[in-house]
Amino acid sequence: EVRMMEKASVKQRLKNIPPVAYMLIVIIAVFSFMDPHYFSFTNFRNVLIQSTPLMILAFGQTCIVLTQGTDLSLGAQVSFVTVFTVFLAQRGIILEVAMIIAVLCTILIGAINGTIVAKGNIPPFIATYGMQNIVNSISLLLTAGSSIYFSSFTYRIVTETTILMIPLMVWVAVIVFIIVWIVLKKTKFGTNIHGLGGNKEALVLAGISPVKCLIKTYAFAGFVAGIAGIITLCRVESGQPIVANGWEFQAVAATLLGGSSLREGKGGVTGTIFGVLLIQIIKNGLNVIGVQSIMQNAIIGSIVLAAIIIDAVVRIRAKE
Predict the structure, then answer these.
(1) Regarding beta strands 166-167 and 162-163, do their DSSP bridges make them parallel or antiparallel, or are they unpaired?
(2) What is the Cα–Cα distance from 257 to 18, expressed in whole angstroms?
(3) Residues 6+ apart with CB under 8 A from 209
(4) Rounded CA gap, 241 and 75, in Å?
(5) What mean pLDDT do residues 22-31 have?
(6) Alpha-carbon distance 320 to 313, whole Å?
(7) To the nearest 10°, the Cα dihedral for 308, 310, 311, 313?
(8) 222: how many CB neighbours lie within 10 A of its CB?
(9) Phi and psi (nearest 5°) for 209?
(10) Euclidean distance between CA atoms 162 and 224, whole angstroms
(11) Could you tell me the sign of the dihedral formed by the alpha carbons of 180, 184, 187, 190, in that order?
(12) Are the C-beta atoms of 222 and 111 separated by less than 8 Å?
């Protein structure tokens, strides 16, 4: 009986692993076969570094997806942080203080998004798309449409410092992951986030305001986007108004690939990690084997779409 229980436990754990994890292994094997030098510590370290800003952003997007929504302004918020931080620093504000102010702004942007969605009863797609355009326009106005610069050693501290051979910025992503995981799994707020997507009526019956909870969720996602913006700023060492264009869609794709559901309020940030890594490893692998950039978007889109379809099919069969 003990052996049977252990086997059942192993099977249950395997079922909980999102299909994207297996697809990730296949993709790595294919690229390793095509290029013997692909499977190396240096290359995977580079993949982690390249993945860090998007991964952090995707953690915030996951929270929104769990409420049956999407925040299309998150990429614009990342770009805004790089721009606004440098804009303030150029005017005499200490860079670290400017970073904090910029993150506070993204929290405010998130709260505004949540208010429009919750109190205005506006579909998240429409509300956040409008905010995306507003934030992008502000970034372009502050920079006159081009990159702006401010020299600081802080950038190098974040990007070049290593702990146990792993860059500090990757450790920041780990810390953000732990924070978001604890919020979603171990707090009342996290339970309410799942409830917004799974059973909003139960929240009302429990005396919890879905409106306040939704506003807090979007504000929290704004905070996470602000952290992603700081990491991006340290990487590019400038304020770039369009540096994160399209990241919001990649974050949604990574979240869905990781097993989170837009319909049921189910999922979490652990699966999101696999989704981000799949997207980034595909990009990295295509560059390593020399695929033309013109073809890369089509290939990445096809693989991501295939992964989402496979994941959906697996889940449907699991329910049968």
Answers:
(1) antiparallel
(2) 8
(3) 203
(4) 10
(5) 86
(6) 11
(7) 120
(8) 26
(9) -80, 110
(10) 22
(11) positive
(12) yes
Q: What distance lies between CA 320 and its chain's CA centroid?
A: 31
Q: Find how far residue 12's CA is from the centre of its chain.
A: 27
Annotate 245-264 with b (16+ C-beta within 10 A) or e (fewer).
Answer: eebbebbbbbbbbbbbbbee
Give the pLDDT confidence of 146-177 residue by residue, as tens digits. Answer: 999 999 999 999 999 999 888 999 999 999 99
Give the 3-state secondary structure of residue 28.
Answer: helix
Condensed to tens digits (0 to 9), the pLDDT of residues 260-272 reads 877 777 888 999 9
- The residues near 102 (Cβ < 8 Å, ≥ 6 apart) are 80, 81, 84, 85, 88, 226, 229, 230
CB 18 within 8 A of CB 259: yes
Task: Compute the distance between CA of residue 287 and CA of residue 191 in angstroms, rounded to an integer.
Answer: 41
pTM of the shown model: 0.90
In sequence order, which ranges of the chain are alpha helices (DSSP H)? 2-16, 19-34, 41-65, 74-89, 95-119, 124-143, 154-160, 168-186, 188-198, 200-205, 210-236, 247-257, 269-288, 293-319
What three-state secondary structure class fits 163? strand
Amino acid at position 281, single letter = I
- Residue 92: CB atoms within 10 Å: 7
**239 φ/ψ angles, rounded to the nearest 5 degrees:** -95, 115
- Give SS3 for 226: helix
